[in-house]
Design a protein that fits this description.
662 residues; seven-stranded antiparallel sheet; 10 helices; 46 strands; 46% strand
Length: 662
């Protein structure tokens, strides 16, 4: 009898557990990805979102040396043998969970990714890294796509018990930068692990997801009736006094100085009597400074301009939308809202958007300057995206800084990145327009990375839940000592009341004059007197992170973005007259080109090939002999081409000398 009772209890517990467990699968994750309302509900089952990345392991604590270390390539969990094959482990995590976003970049993509699920000896997925991430091994764009040299994959890969990701033959691959965002679900969650057979059975759903992600409705601007908002005034432009959710918000705007109007007009939204959105209009819609057209899953900008939001914003009893014109000019506007019924639940969250700006941050050349705070939140919710606008006063690269995201009291970030452009889905400081449902660069003013840049990231499955607090910092890390402006809009949801560090100077910063078109700039490189401003970008690169032979003063003159035929000219001083050797110390690497040196327009020696399968110093190389009078001369460096194995045309030089003949 006792055995029968115990058996009955066990069966009841078994079936109760299985009836109450929440199921997760590739199918459910694909449906969740395109369910716009899903992000407005606190996750059930609950999950954490973390990141595995190749961040520099010298970064151990904010108060320790190396916190801004920048050697972010080819850092792995470990290496191990699989039979006679050596593999390097990028990620090793227990389940239940799901990989929800990949980003990688490298000089080339020669080797194989393997994904082992639930302890299997054989990988469930085995493919060339470039074909798997950003290629079409599993899916094509937009779920798998290359954007400005960054390779991305957003197809979810669920796992029930365990997942391990490896790459082979790193000596051939050389360098690999990676980020993998993954969910870990609460214990007891039933997760159906990814299988290639199951993936193929869902081909129709995958194709539907692909189409849904890029479909977007917009209005004909000729249908819009514009109204006037006087300088210094505010106006309620939409309201509703019954339960529902804003599911579409479209703003049209015009002004004599439209870029200034988009920054100096605030969009303010209150739900149930509490303001949760306070942001410049242009920044809210991801346009940054000026009208920069693009489309994404949550925000888009079209000609007109029409600015569109598809964030779902629930409320229990009332909602109110206002525009505040902080500028000295009148603006014209029109606002369209789409409000649908919404069933409020205990997990329903309010939508929030905050904005902050710091101007003329003084940067340190070739080193991290500071951790610049995007936002600090106290409460319970989910972080779902951000839009960063930068004003760079030098054409050197500004975005080496890593994101550092702390969740629920963490003292070390569970998201530690590999570079600002990597976080936003691209790579190698590429100033190229791109757009996708997940990330965008609608503006990169140039030349190179000079002037205004806008980067946005929108989190669908890779939203980050938090239960008590959330902090997002981004390193300010510039190759040049200059001044730079950062401003960011952050998007998040919260259950009930939540507080944040919305800055007191928001109005003052929104009123500040924007730099819309930057037409003048001077390249200043300490220690070099430039005769011309060549194509591409010039900077002083800190070489302390590179292993092996040393560079003079641990720095080099670094020239990137040039093409064959481009020439750099520098004023130099020759101390002694007569015949002498011209000797140069240079950098050699997989992405360096071939150059021809000259003095006063006359070639010296032959073409120098700077390709090497790793980053090394060339040593002091004799380029040739010259016969010069003492005094001022012009040293020329011309890009002539590249080795067939090289991936780019970079040039680096740390020292040059004139030496007596032997």
């Amino acid at each position: 009898m006792k055995r029968l009772i115990f058996l009955t209890i066990a069966l009841v517990l078994f079936f109760t557990a299985h009836l109450s467990a929440k199921d997760v699968s590739l199918e459910s994750l694909l449906k969740e990805m395109t369910d716009r309302a899903a992000i407005a509900e606190f996750p059930d089952p609950y999950y954490t979102c973390k990141q595995a990345s190749s961040y520099d392991r010298a970064s151990v604590a904010p108060d320790k040396p190396g916190w801004f270390a920048n050697g972010d390539a080819s850092q792995f969990v470990r290496d191990e043998m699989n039979g006679d094959r050596k593999e390097w482990v990028l990620m090793d995590a227990d389940g239940p969970g799901a990989i929800v976003r990949w980003w990688i970049t490298a000089p080339h993509y020669k080797v194989t990714f393997r994904i082992y699920i639930d302890g299997a000896d054989k990988p469930e997925i085995e493919a060339n890294i470039g074909e798997l991430i950003g290629g079409e091994f599993l899916v094509g764009a937009p779920l798998s796509e290359e954007t400005a040299r960054g390779r991305n994959l957003y197809l979810p890969i669920p796992f029930g018990k365990h997942i391990k990701v490896t790459v082979d033959d790193m000596p051939t691959q050389q360098n690999l930068y990676y980020q993998i965002n993954y969910r870990t679900y609460e214990p007891g969650t039933n997760v159906e692990s990814f299988s290639m057979a199951g993936f193929k059975r869902l081909a129709e759903l995958v194709e539907k997801t692909q189409k849904d992600l890029v479909w977007l409705e917009y209005y004909d601007e000729k249908m819009v009736e514009m109204r006037t908002l006087k300088a210094g005034q505010s106006q309620i432009v939409g309201s509703r006094n019954q339960q529902g959710a804003i599911v579409g918000l479209d703003v049209f705007m015009n002004a004599d100085d439209l870029p200034q109007a988009l920054r100096s007009t605030l969009l303010c939204i209150s739900f149930d009597g509490k303001e949760t959105v306070r942001c410049p209009v242009g920044d809210f819609f991801g346009s940054g400074v000026g009208v920069n057209c693009y489309k994404s899953w949550y925000t888009s900008v079209f000609n007109g301009p029409q600015m569109k939001s598809n964030f779902v914003m629930p409320f229990r009893s009332n909602a109110q939308i206002s525009l505040v014109n902080l500028s000295t000019q009148d603006i014209e506007y029109s606002v369209w809202t789409t409000i649908n019924p919404y069933d409020w639940t205990p997990n329903t969250m309010y939508f929030h958007c905050n904005w902050r700006q710091d101007r003329e941050i003084v940067t340190k050349a070739g080193d991290g300057t500071m951790d610049w705070n995007y936002i600090d939140i106290k409460g319970k919710g989910v972080f779902v995206g951000d839009s960063l606008s930068v004003v760079n006063r030098h054409n050197g690269w500004w975005g080496e800084g890593d994101e550092k995201i702390y969740v629920d009291g963490e003292t070390f970030p569970s998201h530690f990145g590999t570079g600002t452009e990597d976080y936003y889905g691209y790579a190698w400081c590429t100033p190229q327009f791109f757009e996708s449902p997940f990330h965008a660069q609608p503006r990169a003013e140039g030349p190179g990375n000079y002037g205004n840049t806008t980067n946005s990231r929108y989190r669908l499955l890779d939203g980050i839940p938090f239960t008590t607090d959330f902090r997002f910092d981004m390193e300010v890390w510039h190759w040049i000592a200059t001044k730079i402006d950062y401003s960011v809009a952050t998007y998040w949801y919260a259950v009930g009341d939540a507080t944040t560090n919305q800055p007191d100077n928001l109005v003052e910063e929104a009123k500040a004059k924007v730099s819309y078109k930057t037409t003048e700039f001077v390249v200043e490189l300490p220690g070099y007197d430039l005769v011309n401003q060549p194509n591409g970008q010039l900077s002083i690169q800190n070489m302390t992170n590179w292993r092996g032979s040393k560079w003079h003063n641990d720095k080099q003159l670094w020239w990137t973005g040039a093409r064959p035929g481009d020439e750099l000219k520098i004023k130099i001083q020759v101390e002694n007259s007569g015949r002498q050797k011209f000797v140069v110390g240079m950098t050699k690497a997989v992405d360096y080109g071939q150059v021809q040196f000259s003095i006063d327009g006359k070639d010296i020696g032959g073409i120098v090939d700077l390709y090497h399968d790793g980053v090394i110093h060339s040593g002091m190389v004799t380029i040739g002999t010259v016969d010069l009078p003492a005094g001022e001369h012009v040293l020329g460096v011309k890009i002539t081409g590249k080795n067939a194995q090289s991936t780019s045309f970079m040039f680096g030089m740390d020292k040059f000398e004139f030496r007596p003949l032997d």
